[in-house]
Amino acid sequence: MNRKIKREPGRPQNCTNEELKQLALEIKYKNHGIKLTPSLLEKETSIGRNTWSRRMKDYINELNNPILTTPSSEEEIMFPSIE
Predict the structure, then answer these.
(1) Is residue 28 part of a domain?
(2) What is the domain range of residue 26?
(3) Taking the CA atoms of the chain, what radius of gyration do you get in angstroms?
């Protein structure tokens, strides 16, 4: 009997998205302040740049542009009195 095995189209994934996120974060810490690009990630991990571009584009942008918060006027900062 011929059974048809249901498979997802395309090549099977070697790494999960969580593993890719962890690798990208480690490389960001290793290369202090350098902008992450798919080509840099490919050199460091030997995972193709197209994989990084397709699956982690938003996460790479998030790592490159961290959210900086500034204290608002509602939040008071208490400084010690030096007199």
Answers:
(1) yes
(2) 17-64
(3) 21
